[in-house]
Amino acid sequence: MQAAMLLTNITTAGTSTYTRANDPYPYFGAPQWKEPAADLIADALKAAGVDATQVSEDAVKAARAVLNLLAELPDPAVAVEDNEITLEWYKDQHHVAVVAVDGRSVTWAVMAGPGNPEKGKAPFDRGLPDEAYAAINAVGAT
Amino acid sequence: MQADIADSERLAVFVFHSNEMKEDAVHWRAFLPGKDGERSLFRVDGLDYYEIAAIGQECAAARPNEKLQGWAIISAADVRKLQGLQLKADNTPPRHGFIDTWPDDKNDRRILAMSLADVAATTRFPCAP
């Protein structure tokens, strides 16, 4: 009760300034170095082993470009399939998007909700077509 | 058992790779054709969980370092409504069949596999109590 009155007195007494003391926790409880950013594409190429030899340098560049274009989405699962690098965003069986690049073209296969498949193919010159971006973004961002 | 697979028949696609069994369902890659161009399946009309599991475990026994993770059930009609796909029964081993006439284009195969996964019902093995 006394404590409650004291609190009331303080809050009705006017504006006060609170300066938070330095929190020592970060210096003891958290590492003081940064983990290097994961290179999903390099990791996938490494995991593919000899199969990665079928992947062209242009395909690697295109995969990195797609990753950058969709950087706001969560990290995709990256895999090597023959001469393609695939990037997959999986939410559930009804919401999944796969982008595949081979250095010349980009293809996308998207299940954008139950019974709603979308697919397409385009030359990969400057980026993703708007329809691909919209479909992938809709799945990846959910 | 009829030589032809009826539209109403339930078909089981077994999963032996843990990365093809997601939290919610069988991953669409489990429906892709193998190197032989076919997606193997079993006709399981009238079979219960234990009988289907027994078939799956028999298949797993022939695969070193792999074990049965579960299966996806689709209907024959689900397969036939997708453009180009056909079902065939060879009954070797008993109840065995396969999906063939997959398109050459990889992206077309992906969207068909996603479409099958979209309508599949998943059973895990062993089943959670």
Characterize the structure shown.
The complex is a heterodimer of chains A (142) and B (129). Chain A is α+β, with helices and mostly antiparallel strands and 142 residues long. Chain A is built from five helices and five strands, in the order H-H-H-H-E-E-E-E-E-H. Chain B is of the alpha+beta class and 129 residues long. Chain B has one domain. A six-stranded antiparallel beta sheet of chain B has the order 4-5-2-1-3-6, sandwiched between helices. At the A-B interface, strand 2, strand 3, strand 4 and strand 5 of A face helix 3 of B.
Quickly describe the structure:
Chain A is built from five helices and five strands; from the N terminus they run ααααβββββα. Chain A is an alpha+beta fold.
Strand-helix topology:
The complex is a heterodimer of chains A (142) and B (129).
Chain A: H1 2-12, H2 25-29, H3 40-48, H4 57-69, E1 77-81, E2 84-92, E3 95-101, E4 105-112, E5 117-123, H5 130-140
Antiparallel strand pairs in A: 1-2, 2-3, 3-4, 4-5
Chain B: E1 10-15, E2 39-43, H1 49-61, E3 70-75, H2 76-80, E4 86-89, E5 96-100, H3 106-119, E6 121-124
User: How many DSSP E strands of chain A?
Assistant: 5
Radius of gyration of chain A: 25 Å
Q: What string, H for helix and E for strand, traces the elements of chain B in order?
A: EEHEHEEHE
The helix/strand order of chain A is HHHHEEEEEH
Can you tell me the overall shape of chain A? Answer: globular
Secondary-structure-based class of chain A equals alpha+beta
Query: How many structural domains does the protein architecture of chain B include?
Result: 1
Biggest sheet overview of chain A: 5 strands, antiparallel
Mean pLDDT figure of chain B: 95
For the largest interface, the chains and their residue counts are: A-B, 19 and 18 residues
Q: List segments of chain A where confidence is low: pLDDT < 50 over at least 5 consecutive residues.
A: 3-16
How many distinct helices of chain A?
A: 5
Distance between the termini of chain B: 33 Å
Assembly state here?
heterodimer
Helix content of chain B: 10-25%
Continuous helix count of chain B: 3
How are the strands ordered across the major sheet of chain B? 4-5-2-1-3-6
Q: β content of chain A, as a range? A: 25-35%
